[in-house]
Amino acid sequence: MIGVIGGSGLYEMEGLQQIEEITLDTPFGQPSDAYITGVLNGVKMVFLPRHGRGHRLLPSEVNYRANIYGMKQLGVQRIISVSAVGSLKEEVIPGHIVIPDQFIDRTRGSRQATFFGEGVVAHVGFADPTCACLSDKLFRAAQAAGAVTHKGGTYICMEGPAFSTRAESFMYRSIGGDIIGMTNLTEAKLAREAEICYGVIALSTDYDCWHETHEDVTVEAILEIMHKNVVMAKEIIRHAVQDSVLEQNCSCSSVLQYAIITDRAVIPAETIAKLGPIVSKYLP
Ligand SMILES: CSC[C@H]1O[C@H](OP(=O)(O)O)[C@H](O)[C@@H]1O
Ligand SMILES: Nc1ncnc2[nH]cnc12
């Protein structure tokens, strides 16, 4: 099963057949909205709007743990994130697509970015935070949909909700950032812990505030580009979903095998119960 998390400007998936709306409550709280399941081009998928329908949640208010836990409960093995991002590079023109493969964390530490704790410690590998195999498919899907697409790139994940200062924007460029957003890193960490492949279709919507000849970012400008490109974004998902039926060749589904360090004998039963489908393979 494929999961799609829609970001700013993408609050529903057209073309889904056999639609069902599933409201879940998880041990980590409530997801952003009901999950919409259905069939797209013969492939079963589930859609969740990250900020909720009507865009009600700040990037810092999104319950990322509940969102990913719910996906796991529904049997999702691959998550495609669709996000609006600012461009930190001249060549990443607004309207282009980037498939990022790295993140730099500029969140403030207040987000819940792990399922572990409460008596069980796990350290997953995160050197390559997105699934290379899924990202490759997203790259090919974006090209097939006719988008100018950049393979790889570093996504700066800032806290928000205010956009960056000009000095920060210059700093992000100087430390190797290619694009900037407020959501994807937290999601990628949790997807990794949940052993779900995670890949990003990032739509460049603006030049943040570093560019000499382009206006500073505004929500208005972001939504204008997003609306102009939403059909293309959905087209990329359609191509990706078809392609994703093919066999995956990655290790995302077994990252917890050696990551849980806690002595099994001292892990509280209630913690195991709470983690449910995240650890059931290893802590029966
Ligand atoms: C609407 S402007 C800023 C907002 O857009 C991006 O959201 P998402 O990643 O969910 O597409 C960015 O991260 C901010 O949350
Ligand atoms: N410039 C920007 N900064 C942060 N998040 C964004 N999302 C879209 N454009 C952005």
Automatic annotation (TrEMBL):
Its EC number is 2.4.2.28. Phosphate binds at S8, R50, H51, S83, A84, T183. Pathway: Amino-acid biosynthesis; L-methionine biosynthesis via salvage pathway; S-methyl-5-thio-alpha-D-ribose 1-phosphate from S-methyl-5'-thioadenosine (phosphorylase route): step 1/1. The record marks S164, V219 as: Important for substrate specificity. Residues 2-241 form the Nucleoside phosphorylase domain. It is an enzyme of class 2 (transferase). GO terms for biological process: L-methionine salvage from methylthioadenosine; purine ribonucleoside salvage. GO terms for molecular function: S-methyl-5-thioadenosine phosphorylase activity. It catalyses: S-methyl-5'-thioadenosine + phosphate = 5-(methylsulfanyl)-alpha-D-ribose 1-phosphate + adenine. One of its GO terms (cellular component) is cytosol. The keyword Cell membrane does not apply. The keyword Glycosyltransferase applies. Keywords: Glycosyltransferase, Purine salvage, Transferase. Substrate binds at M182, D206, Y207, D208. Catalyzes the reversible phosphorylation of S-methyl-5'-thioadenosine (MTA) to adenine and 5-methylthioribose-1-phosphate. Involved in the breakdown of MTA, a major by-product of polyamine biosynthesis. Responsible for the first step in the methionine salvage pathway after MTA has been generated from S-adenosylmethionine. Has broad substrate specificity with 6-aminopurine nucleosides as preferred substrates. Homohexamer. Dimer of a homotrimer. NCBIfam families: MTAP. Belongs to the PNP/MTAP phosphorylase family. MTAP subfamily. This is S-methyl-5'-thioadenosine phosphorylase. It comes from Trichlorobacter lovleyi (strain ATCC BAA-1151 / DSM 17278 / SZ) (Geobacter lovleyi).
